[in-house]
Design brief:
Helices cover about 40% and strands about 25% of the residues. The chain is α/β, with parallel strands linked by helices. β18 and β19 (about 365-370) form a beta hairpin. α6 (about 250-260) packs parallel to α7 (about 280-295), α7 packs antiparallel against α8 (about 320-330) and α10 (about 410-420) packs antiparallel against α11. It starts with a helix and ends with a strand.
Length: about 675
């Protein structure tokens, strides 16, 4: 019995051990398979099919050949996202690095009335001296040549010398141009004085083009290309007005404006003369449309290329509408197509049409409200607005309405794009019309919005534009003049005191805010302004030391502006020491006032008119005593001014100075 019991127990343990081994083997196999499959899927999802995966127990081995070290590490990262990073063994090899390819050689040649600039990278074999000499000759006596070229020691690519020689020859006939030179291509952007000269330049440049060299030409004529060619005339409760006006010739412009005046428009409306007219009979079509709208008494006329949309105001007599439209259709040139609409009178119980409203505040915040047709339209409108105005500036509160008419999404997007052309304002979209109102710093915004809406909402689409141009919003005309800049800085410094640490050229902590305000003014003033920063001290201490300290303080202010990333190429720093006091150095208050920084606008030197030969002859012919006395009285006397007519060149006048008190000793 004992022996039997022992056999039974031993057999049971043996069976259990065998079962454990089988279970463990099955578990290991399951882990290996799941690890391989998971890592393989992750690598395939990351487009790394070149990597191989093999699992051995808990370890996962990555093998294969990676195109780069970055890809090798990316494969390991992808595998670590599936299994523990400690289990990943990276045995991937990296493809041997190929020999570095030669860089892309190119030159940008910029020429205008002030000179020529050379920018780019050229091979070491390029004769830079000869190139600079050639463009120096082109720049002339008054022009300057700015050489910003860099050189790389690589072989000259095929076609480089031919392209460069062609660019030099082209530059001789283009006083205002940008020429981009590559080994196989030359791109030229230039301006011409007329359409005839434009064609002549293009023909000449193409005739000189060497074989094998590609040429990209963009020669602009004074007249802009208008697309679509648009005219929009409307008559509402405020009277007749143009939202947009385009003409192909000066004669056509005169005819269109004459028709508008006969329709009752006031003031002196403008009409852009441009290229792109669909028919030489554009003026005749415009005259016919304006006359018809005036006879209807209200509504809008929109001409976009050869499509004309005439929308009569509510309440227009049906019989009169039919007659006037019929006469207009008969009078229009053949190429033009008319779509006439009589706006119906709303029903008494009508609660108003559905609408979508987009507003933009002066601070740049945009809000989308109203109705959209579906969730996709709402998402697209929100994304489009964020792309135009910035994600942080857009708030969307539009709701869904599946009863909206077809084309609603297109009208919503057109309205948002129209709003992007305003500094602030609102756009209202309804099934019948799109209304745009607001302020802008772009003088041609109304024309641009008219062309946009006429193109987007198509024939028969009605819209209303009430856009006000404001100079202060204009990114160019809204900039302050140099004198206004000087005055603004003067006001800043008059209100707050600029301080230095005692006896040093270090601005103290309180000066940071003042310098920030000055920098903000200078940033709006542009890069062309020229100013002198002058440092002054009191009379305490040695004169030499005072002069040095004043120079260091002026330079410290200039360095502070440069540290704020301002372009200060037109600025200079000068120390005057104790030579120009503005108060009595005998008192503490006077010495405090004399320790100061001055900003002075550097003005162009006056040009002295020279006497012409004819004037000299006439003066010589006058031999009377009165003429001699007059000539003697006109002779300049010694008035203490230097050659520049500015007195002591180290002492800016009070009219040209912007003063800041600077304390801190001397």
């Amino acid at each position: 019995m004992r022996l039997s019991s022992m056999i039974v127990f031993s057999s049971a343990f043996a069976v259990a051990a065998g079962a454990c081994l089988v279970a463990a083997s099955f578990a290991v196999t399951l882990i290996e398979d799941s690890s391989e499959i998971g890592v393989r899927d992750a690598l395939d999802g990351a487009n790394m099919s070149w990597a191989e995966v093999h699992a051995d127990g808990l370890q996962v081995y990555l093998t294969g050949t990676s195109p780069s070290e970055v890809s090798r590490l990316s494969a390991q990262t992808a595998a670590s996202g599936v299994v523990d990073a400690a289990r990943v063994i990276n045995n991937i090899e990296v493809t041997a690095t190929r020999k570095l390819a030669a860089p892309h050689f190119s030159i940008e040649i910029l020429r205008n009335d002030s000179g020529v600039s050379l920018i780019g990278l050229v091979p070491a074999g390029t004769n830079r001296d000869a190139l600079v000499k050639t463009v120096t000759t082109l720049a002339g006596v008054e022009g300057t040549v700015t050489d910003l070229l860099e050189t790389a020691d690589y072989p000259t690519p095929d076609g480089w010398d031919d392209a460069l020689s062609y660019a030099e020859r082209a530059l001789k006939s283009l006083p205002r141009a940008k020429i981009s030179v590559n080994a196989d291509r030359v791109a030229i952007t230039a301006m011409s004085d007329s359409a005839i000269e434009k064609r002549k330049i293009e023909t000449d440049l193409r005739r000189r083009l060497p074989s094998g060299l590609k040429l990209d030409l963009a020669i602009s004529a004074p007249r802009p290309v208008i697309t679509p060619f648009t005219l929009r005339f409307l008559i509402d409760e405020t009277g007749p007005s143009f939202d947009a006006c385009a003409a192909d010739t000066a004669e056509a412009k005169e005819r269109i404006l004459r028709a508008a005046k006969e329709a009752g428009i006031s003031g002196t409306p403008d009409c852009t003369i441009g290229l792109g007219v669909p028919s030489p009979r554009w003026a005749r079509a415009a005259e016919t449309g304006i006359k018809a709208l005036a006879e209807l008494g209200g509504g809008s006329l929109t001409m976009a290329d050869a499509d004309i949309s005439l929308i009569a105001a509510q309440g227009t007599d049906q019989a009169a509408f039919d007659r006037i439209v019929g006469e207009m259709e008969a009078a229009l040139p053949e190429v033009f197509a008319l779509n006439a609409t009589l706006t119906p009178t709303p029903n008494a119980g009508d609660q108003g049409p559905p609408e979508f409203v987009a507003t933009r505040s002066p601070e740049g915040l945009v809000q989308l409200r109203g109705r959209v047709s579906d969730e996709q339209t709402r998402t697209i409108a929100d994304s489009f607005a964020k792309a135009r105005f910035g994600s942080a500036s857009v708030y969307s509160a539009a709701r869904l309405d599946d009863s909206l008419p077809r084309g609603w999404a297109l009208r919503v997007l057109a309205g948002i794009e129209a709003l992007s052309k305003l500094s602030n304002g609102a756009v209202t979209v309804t099934p019948q019309t799109i209304t745009v109102s607001g302020n802008t710093g772009n003088q041609t915004a109304s024309d641009e919005i008219s062309r946009l809406l006429a193109d987007k909402i198509g024939e028969g689409g009605d819209f209303s534009i009430n856009v006000t141009y404001k100079k202060q919003l204009d990114p160019v005309l809204g900039l302050p003049t140099p004198d206004e800049c000087e005055t603004e800085i003067k006001d800043i410094l008059a209100a707050r005191k600029l301080n230095f640490e005692p006896g040093s050229a270090t601005l103290d902590a309180s000066a940071s805010a003042i310098m920030q305000d000055i920098a903000a003014v200078l940033e709006r003033c542009g890069d062309e302004i020229k100013m002198e920063i002058g440092g002054h001290t009191d009379s305490q201490g040695r004169e030499t030391m005072n002069q040095q300290l004043s120079q260091q303080r002026a330079q410290a202010v200039l360095n502070d502006l440069r540290a704020r990333r301002l372009l200060t190429s037109g600025f200079s720093a000068k120390g005057y020491g104790e030579t120009n006091p503005i108060a009595d150095n005998g008192t503490e208050e006077g010495r405090e006032a004399n320790r100061r920084i001055e900003f002075r606008l550097i003005r162009p030197e006056p040009v002295v008119a020279k006497q012409t030969a004819l004037e000299a002859a006439e003066a010589g012919a006058q031999d009377t005593p009165d003429a001699s006395d007059a000539a003697e009285e006109a002779t300049p006397q010694d008035d203490g001014l230097d050659d520049n007519g500015s007195g002591d060149e180290d002492a800016p006048t009070s009219e040209d100075s912007t003063e800041a008190q600077a304390s801190g000793g001397n």
